[in-house]
Design goal:
The protein has 36 helices and no strands. Helix 4 runs antiparallel to helix 5 and helix 11 runs antiparallel to helix 13. It is mostly helical and 629 residues long.
Amino acid sequence: MDVMGDKATLFETGRFVQPSGEEATPDESRDETADAVETGEAVEEMGLRLAAEAGDAEAVSVLGAMLLRRGDLDGAEPYLRAATAEGDRAAANNLGVLLHQRGYPDEAAGWWRVAAVAGSAAAAHALGRHRRECGDEPAAEYWLRQSAEQGHALGAYALADLLEHRGDAGAEQWMRAAAERGHREAAYRLARALDHKECRRGPECQERRGSRTDGDADECGHDSGVTARAEAEQWYRQAAARGHRRAALHLGTILEGRGQLKEAGRWYLTSAKDGEARAACALGFLLRDAGDTESAAIWWLRAAQEGDGNAANALGALHAERGQTQTAERWYRAAMDAGDDNGAYNLALLCAEQGRTVQAEQWYRRAAYAGHREAANALAVLLLQGGDTAGAEPWFSKAAEAGSVDAAFNLGILFAGRGEEAVALRWYERAAAAGHTEAALQVGIARLRDGDEREAERHLRCAAGGGSAEAAYRLAAVLDARRPQQPAHELGEIVHEKTECEEWYERAATQGHRRAQVRVGMLAAARGDVVEAARWYRTAAEAGSRNGAFNLGLLLAREGSEPEAAVWWTRAADAGHGRAALRLALVYARRGELAEGQRWADRAVSLGPAEVAKRAARLRDALREELSA
């Protein structure tokens, strides 16, 4: 009754409720809420003290626990000892906690043992951890297992950690048990384990699968609808929802990989706000990709200041793009200091762009010695450009062996330049197998040279698909050679069907390949499409193709535009086209300009080929006789 009277008096003071007619400010409300909590605790403590003085053993134990939580070890100890003497196992456990905090671990372990034997899961967990710290793993396992089997989450997690340390297969079972009981670190570690493990079914499991209905669980316990990675995501979610910042980072990574950028950004933000530098860095990249470079820079700065080398590199690249090279260099150096080899590589690239070759080589070497394969390749290129072939080769080899596709291709070029075609081809094939377009082209050319048309076509298709105009042209030529002879069409008679080889010619032509442009024009002319043929011939001619200029002249002449044709023939002849020179000789001869005709005939004789030279010689002699008559 006294306690109730005191509590009533406290309510009347207004510390729990506002007097009617008055409205509290937000700050005042917060203060009064805190006061209310403190007053409630004070009232509870008063009640417990009265009950303890009256001989209530449970009140003694609870009061000791309350004082222990508050940090009042001196006040808590007598109550806990008194309750322990009465056989209260919770008090024995708490007394162990108190003594451990005072620096008496052995005495604490004695009381934990008392409580654990009496059935306290919390005491068994504490005792198990103590025994592990002492190096007594068998005893640690015994007590932790006692705790875990009673459903104690901390005990299950500690047991899983011990078993995992020993490589025991039972670790996952207890890690899962701890995670299911709400232990966030257990959920995170279980997710990490599952993230690297795919569901692998043995032969017996495969046989059992054949007799079941889709969607059912296998007899071996595998669920066909849920992979280990999907389960990992669920545990990441649980851990992240409980505030585990690394779980939030990994969950964001998974979501970003699936293209769920908005949700990924939310988890990155959650993790970054909790101090995870990698999440801040990832959030920066997400914002940059969304076009918000200013916000990205803010998060990169935060991550870089916390020692994230990737973020420092990103800041360096951002400032380099803006032309702020000194600031960029400072951040690249910060990345190096954080242990990120990309910092040295990026710094080398920056120096190379500025023409600071000596410094570039220095930083390339630093990154290359640290194992940066692209730095090793770049260093080799730099040495090769300086004429140091002997110094370049080992760096190319080191980079290629480390997986640099460009280095493998460059080794191919190096050996091809020495005439070691077989060695060059091996490196080209290695680079081509990794998707290097130009390497695939070189392999295709080599296979054509060896007469292996089937392999040549396969590699040329790869290179052409990768965007190589030369590969597209050569592939088209291979396919063109297989085509049956097509019937001729009259000019102006358009046939719309295009063969595959023509499509490849057109792809190469569109990419600016002059020989392909000429060939597309020829195929269009063969189909009777004069306009298309003229367009491609003109495109090739204007790009400097003498064959394009000559063919355009032929087309114009057939259409009755010989003066314009002569202009293009002149361009082709000036570029060394013998047939164009012969055509000009005939044009001038028909016009009666015999001296000019003789001059072009002389030119045709010198340019060839043999058949043209022979005809041009006869025409030249005839014109000479006419002039001397």
